[in-house]
Design goal:
The complex is a heterodimer of chains A (261) and B (386). Chain A has 261 residues and is an alpha/beta fold. Chain A contains 7 helices and 11 strands. Classes of the chains: A alpha/beta (261), B alpha+beta (386). The complex binds adenosine-5'-triphosphate (ATP) and magnesium ion (MG).
């Protein structure tokens, strides 16, 4: 077991635990996308998942987010095994415990920014007035107080992603996951979003798990998990301004430049 | 009920999609109703024309006799049946009509004008003269228009009606245009005059009846047959050929209906599947946010319930207006070919019911199926498959 030093309350409670998690895609050829992954993530961690294209990063994130079903292994969410939960139970957990930000923002085009942010709360059965107030607050806090009534096609990529972040946070989830959420944005917008997430992580102890290609962004997080061919090959943790690699980091041949100095 | 909110917003902010859904249902309903109406209007017209131009029941002489002499008794008995609205004892036969050098074969009908008028509405077809004159004018006749022109006869001209070696001189008291084959052969004359010509005494060759409800004719006919020795035929038996034609026709009508429904259903299904399949990604996003399968289906059911019934109503109105336009346009058909002389659309309420129920069902199933399929996927699958 690793020691968790981050998070405001310094809890050691693991919010997500993966045990021997595997995923095999079987349309035509069999692809072993995830190969017996074991991973613990504590509340309040800010985690980046990196690795070459096709290594299984998205697959892993989708498993954690209960957006897809594993072939074998276990997913424990707050200590409860959810890998075999019913579709309705998974839907409930996605709504209450998880927030998502995807590469393409995936806002619903018919809805305004405000309505998009309100949606998870409405799905949760909250009152519309309550949802409206909370969604407004969040949009203001991501700097979109002026654009609440715009529809997604009237927003820039960066603005859309900020709406998506607000939407992911609206139900106060245990974990927010993001799959290359800045992959479509320029450097400046990406930095802005990462700073926003970093700030939220610090302020409200929000757990984030982000997949990224961009090592500059990955190094803004506290923990970097490197995946190659469906396996975790390396883990690095921030200590002060430095990253310290775990003893597993002996495979460097895949081109990922994680500098240790 | 956030599902209602989603459905409602989606409809309002996607006017194009909503319009397509409405149009598909509207058109399907209108097409089904109008085409069913036209087909059945034609059939009904054929029956109506047949029923109108012929007696519903005809009592013929007993098997080995040529005439009915107790026709007054027979008439009395016929009148005693409920629903009998006209009884006319007729003496009919074939004869020749002569005027100057013109000769024509005719079919004469000796009648009591009041009785025959009640039976056949003869006066309605008169282009000249008063049919009731035949009651007072003993040697007068009503002729079909074409017969009159063949014989070069004008009103009040005299002509000869020749039967065997007997003949009588008659005056043209009126001319009839029924719009059918009888215009070329028919000669109406007072019954007593016809009896004189025939020389068999006070007899008739048939007693013709009309009843209020044409579908009772068969029962009355059967009853008469059982009670008396007279040959009795209902309109169905007399017009067996026409009815048989309709019977054969109704087989094709069935096929036709099946095709109409298939085409209309295809239109709706196509539109719905196209529209809903395009929303697979949205379904994935909603599910990623925690919408359950049930909720997803609810959204689509609500949308279907909001859009389809008004569309069905518009379709019904459109069908009604189209039918009305067809009827008021008065499209003439050559009656020699089609029996009926104009296009009629029969607007039966059940056509609307069939069309609306069918359109709603297809709209529902075709809209729900892609939604159902999408809702069975994992959210990533749904999002990715768009
Ligand atoms: N739906 C699918 N069906 C079949 N194979 C799949 C499917 N999704 C992913 N894969 C395969 O699984 C492996 C892992 O894919 P995944 O999308 O997780 O990679 P990734 O690390 O996210 O790559 P990238 O950085 O390009 O997004 C790849 O080999 C990919 O081809
Ligand atoms: Mg990926």
């Amino acid at each position: 077991m690793h020691e968790v030093t981050l998070g405001m309350n310094g809890t050691t409670e693991d919010i997500i635990v993966l045990r021997d998690l595997s995923k095999v895609y079987k349309d035509g050829v069999e692809v072993l996308a995830l190969d017996r992954i074991n991973l613990d993530i504590a509340a309040g961690e800010f985690v980046a998942i990196v690795g070459p294209s096709g290594s299984g990063k998205s697959t892993l994130l989708n498993m954690v987010g209960l957006l897809d079903t594993p072939t074998s292994g276990q997913i424990l969410l707050k200590g409860i095994d959810v890998s075999r939960a019913s579709p309705n139970e998974r839907a409930r957990l996605r709504n209450k415990e998880l927030g998502f930000v995807f590469q393409y923002h995936h806002l619903i085009p018919e809805f305004t920014a405000l309505e998009n942010v309100m949606m998870p709360m409405l799905i949760a059965g909250k009152k519309e007035s309550e949802a409206r107030v909370r969604a407004r607050e969040l949009l203001v806090s991501v700097g979109l107080g002026e654009r609440m009534d715009n529809r997604p096609n009237q927003l820039s990529g960066g603005q859309s992603q900020r709406v998506a972040v607000a939407r992911a946070l609206v139900n106060g989830p245990s974990i927010v996951i993001g799959d290359e959420l800045t992959g479509n944005l320029d450097t400046k917008s990406s930095q802005l979003i990462y700073d926003l997430l970093r700030d939220l992580n610090k302020r409200i102890n929000q757990t984030f798990i982000l997949v990224t290609h961009d090592m500059v962004l990955a190094e803004k997080t506290d923990r970097i998990i490197r995946i190659v061919d469906g396996r975790i090959v390396c883990e690095m943790r921030r200590q002060g301004d430095e990253f310290v690699a775990s003893e597993k980091c002996d495979l460097g041949e895949d081109g990922g430049e994680i500098r240790r100095d | 009920m956030y599902e209602l909110t989603v459905a409602y917003r989606h409809i309002l902010r996607n006017p194009k999609m909503s319009l397509f859904t409405v149009a598909a249902v509207t058109l399907a309903v209108a097409v089904i109703v109008v085409l069913m109406g036209l087909t059945s209007g034609f059939e009904e017209d054929v029956i109506a024309t047949t029923v109108e131009n012929n007696p519903h029941i005809v009592v013929h002489p007993k098997e080995d006799e040529k005439y009915i002499s107790l026709y007054r008794t027979v008439s009395g008995i016929l009148w005693s049946y409920p629903g009998v609205i006209a009884v006319s004892a007729r003496l009919t036969g074939k004869a020749a009509a002569k005027h100057k050098d013109e000769v024509a074969g005719v079919e004469f009908v000796g009648i009591e004008p009041a009785d025959e008028e009640r039976l056949m509405n003869v006066q309605e077809d008169a282009v000249y003269g008063s049919f009731f004159d035949l009651r007072t004018r003993r040697y007068a006749a009503f002729l079909g228009t074409r017969l009159a022109s063949d014989l070069k006869l004008h009103p009040e001209d005299d002509f000869l009606l020749v039967l065997g070696n007997k003949s009588i001189k008659l005056k043209v008291a009126g001319v009839l245009e029924a719009g059918s084959a009888v215009d070329k052969t028919r000669v109406y004359l007072p019954r007593r005059t016809a009896q004189d010509l025939l020389g068999k005494g006070d007899v008739v060759s048939e007693v013709a009846v009309k009843v209020a409800d044409i579908y009772k004719a068969r029962d009355i006919t059967a009853d008469l047959r059982r009670l008396f020795g007279y040959e009795t035929k209902s309109w169905e038996e007399t017009n067996a050929d026409v009815l048989e034609l309709i019977q054969t026709q109704s087989f094709y009508t069935m096929i036709f209906y099946v095709l109409i429904f298939a085409i209309a259903g295809f239109g709706i299904a196509n539109t719905m599947i196209m529209i809903i399949t395009r929303r697979t990604r949205e379904i994935g996003i909603l599910m990623a946010m925690g919408a359950t399968r049930g909720s997803i289906l609810k959204v689509f059911v609500i949308e279907s319930l909001i859009l389809a019934p008004p569309a069905a109503l518009i379709g019904s109105i459109l069908a009604y207006l189209t039918a009305w336009a067809i009827m008021s346009y008065d499209i003439q058909l050559p009656s020699e070919v089609y029996i009926v002389s104009r296009m009629t659309v029969s607007m039966k309420p059940e056509f609307f019911v069939y069309a609306v129920l069918f359109a709603l069902a297809v709209n529902f199933v075709a809209g729900l199926y892609p939604a159902w399929r999408a809702s069975r996927m994992d959210p990533v699958e749904a999002i990715g498959s768009a």
